[in-house]
Write a structure and sequence with these properties.
The protein has 438 residues and is of the alpha/beta class. Helix content is 50%, strand content 15%. It folds into two domains: 140 residues; 219 residues, 3-Layer(aba) Sandwich (Rossmann fold).
C-alpha cells in the first residue's frame, strides 16, 4: 500500500512549495541545512503508509519536543564538510598523497585554491565530528524511539580512525601526509560511514525544527490506527495557516462515513474541509497537526474537489470539469482503496435543480463505499433533508448569525442542517439594486 494524492488536491490544500505563499510546507521550513531542507521536502512528498511507521516518527518528534534540544552544528561548517566529502579522492593511497603534494605546490606557485579548500574542508569535518560526538554523549539512553539511532552514530564515531581525527588540533598546520591520509580514508574506506553521519545531522535538523514549530504553536500529534478501523476522530481541529483559527470536532467511522456539511457562502465550509485534508496529510507524515487531539485510520490516499476550474485548452466548462472530477473520484473509490474524499459545493456550475439532483444522487452513491470516508458540502440545504433516511450520513452546518441586517460567521460546526438564507439580504446591504436602478 502507498499513499496517493493528485496534483489538484496538493494545490487546493496548498501543501507544497518553499516559496508558495501560505503553503503548509513553509510553516515547517525552519531547517538550517541544505540537507535538512531536502529531507523535509522528501517527507512532504512521500507520506507514510502504515501505522507503526507513522507513530514511530511522531514519537521521535515528541521526544525532541520534550527535550528542547538546540541544533548543535555550525551551518557553514556542515556545508564545508559536505563539499569536502563530495570532492573525490583516488582509491590508491600513494596516488592520493601525490595529488595532495601537487596541489600544495600549485597553491604556492599559482592561485590554485584546491589545497586550501581541502584543508578547510578537513578542519570543518573535524569540528563537526566533535560536535556530533558531544551531542550523542550528552543525550544519553534510554531515548525511546531514537535510542537505536543515537547508538548507531555513537558506534560510527568510535571508529579508531575517526577518534584519531577528532583529536587533531585544527589550529596547528596539518602535515601533507595527514591531509592525504584522511582524504583517502574519509572519501574512500569510510565514505558510507561519513554519509551516515551527515544523514544523522540532517535528521537532527528536521527533528528539531519540526518539534520547535509544534511547541511554539501548541500543536499535537495524531495517533495512527490500522486501515480497517476506518475512523477519523479529532477535537479542536483547525487550519494551521490561520492564526487563532476556530477549532472543530469531527467523528467519522464505518457506520457514519459521510459528513454532509451545509451553510451559507462565506460561512467557512471550504476552509473547514481544507483543515481536515491538511490535518490528515500531516498526520500521515507523522507531523504535528493543528488540533487538540486526533486519531485516524491510515488511508491509501486523499482526494479533494474544492476549487475546480474550467479548462479552456480541453474545452471544458466549469460544470463539465466538475463532472470529470467526480468521475475520477468515483473510479478511485470503486477501486477498493480506503480513501478520504472531499467535495465542496458539488455541481455549482449548473442550475439549482440539476445541482440538487446531482448532489443527492452522488452523495447517496458514495455513502455505500463504507471503506472510504467522505465530506460533502453544499449550500443547497434541501439535499440534507432528503439524506436523513441514511443513518451513515451525518449532517452538520456552519451557522450564520445576524447582527441586525449584517451577517456574522462563527465558523463553529453545529449539528443538523442550516436554515440560513441571507443571500438576498447581503445583496441589499451592498446597495446593488440601488446602483442598478440609478
Amino acid at each position: 500500500m502507498s499513499f496517493s494524492i493528485d496534483t489538484q488536491t496538493l494545490e487546493e490544500l496548498n501543501l507544497l512549495g518553499k516559496f508558495r505563499q501560505g503553503s503548509v510546507y513553509s510553516l515547517f521550513n525552519q531547517v538550517r541545512t541544505r540537507g535538512g531542507e531536502q529531507l523535509l521536502d522528501s517527507m512532504f512528498r512521500t507520506p507514510l503508509d502504515n501505522a507503526p511507521a507513522i507513530n514511530e516518527r511522531s514519537g521521535i518528534f515528541q521526544f525532541f519536543q520534550q527535550a528542547k534540544l538546540d541544533f548543535p552544528f555550525d551551518v557553514q561548517e556542515v556545508s564545508l564538510m559536505r563539499e569536502y566529502l563530495d570532492t573525490g579522492a583516488g582509491d590508491n593511497a600513494l596516488m592520493t598523497l601525490a595529488g595532495t603534494v601537487i596541489k600544495k605546490i600549485l597553491s604556492g606557485l599559482t592561485r590554485d585554491e584546491r589545497y586550501k579548500k581541502n584543508v578547510q574542508g578537513l578542519q570543518a569535518t573535524i569540528v563537526t565530528l566533535n560536535k556530533c560526538y558531544s551531542f550523542v554523549e550528552r543525550v544519553q539512553s534510554p531515548m525511546g524511539p531514537y535510542a537505536a539511532r543515537i547508538e548507531a552514530v555513537r558506534k560510527l564515531l568510535s571508529d579508531h580512525r575517526l577518534e584519531r581525527l577528532r583529536n587533531i588540533d585544527i589550529y596547528k598546520a596539518l602535515p601533507v601526509q595527514t591531509l592525504a591520509f584522511y582524504d583517502h580514508v574519509l572519501k574512500g574506506r569510510l565514505q558510507e560511514e561519513m554519509e551516515g553521519i551527515l544523514s544523522f545531522i540532517y535528521e537532527l535538523d528536521v527533528n528539531i525544527a519540526v518539534s520547535d514549530v509544534a511547541r511554539s504553536k501548541g500543536w499535537t500529534y495524531a495517533y495512527a490506527l490500522p486501515p480497517e478501523k476506518n475512523i477519523l476522530m479529532a477535537k479542536g481541529l483547525y487550519h494551521p495557516g490561520i492564526k487563532g483559527g476556530v477549532g472543530n470536532a469531527i467523528s467519522l467511522h464505518r457506520d457514519s462515513n459521510v459528513l454532509f456539511l451545509t451553510g451559507a457562502n462565506m460561512a467557512g465550509k471550504s476552509t473547514w474541509m481544507k483543515s481536515v485534508g491538511i490535518g490528515m496529510y500531516l498526520a500521515h507524515m507523522g507531523f504535528p497537526v493543528a488540533a487538540a487531539n486526533m486519531d485516524f485510520s491510515v488511508r491509501e490516499g486523499l482526494y479533494s474537489s474544492i476549487n475546480v476550474a474550467d479548462n479552456i485548452s480541453l474545452g471544458y466548462s466549469h460544470f463539465y470539469a466538475e463532472v470529470v472530477r467526480v468521475k475520477q473520484a468515483a473510479l478511485a473509490a470503486a477501486s477498493g482503496k480506503r480513501l478520504l474524499l472531499m467535495f465542496d459545493e458539488l455541481f455549482k456550475g449548473t442550475n439549482v435543480k440539476d445541482a440538487y439532483d446531482g448532489t443527492l444522487a452522488v452523495t447517496e452513491a458514495f455513502s455505500e463505499y463504507r471503506g472510504c470516508l467522505f465530506i460533502v458540502s453544499t449550500h443547497i440545504i434541501e439535499v440534507g433533508a432528503a439524506l436523513k433516511s441514511h443513518p451513515n450520513i451525518h449532517c452538520v452546518y456552519m451557522p450564520t448569525v445576524m447582527d441586525g441586517v449584517h451577517p456574522r460567521y462563527t465558523y463553529k460546526l453545529e449539528e443538523g442542517i442550516t436554515a440560513d438564507r441571507q443571500g438576498m439580504m447581503i445583496i441589499q446591504n451592498e446597495g446593488i439594486l440601488e446602483l442598478i436602478g440609478e
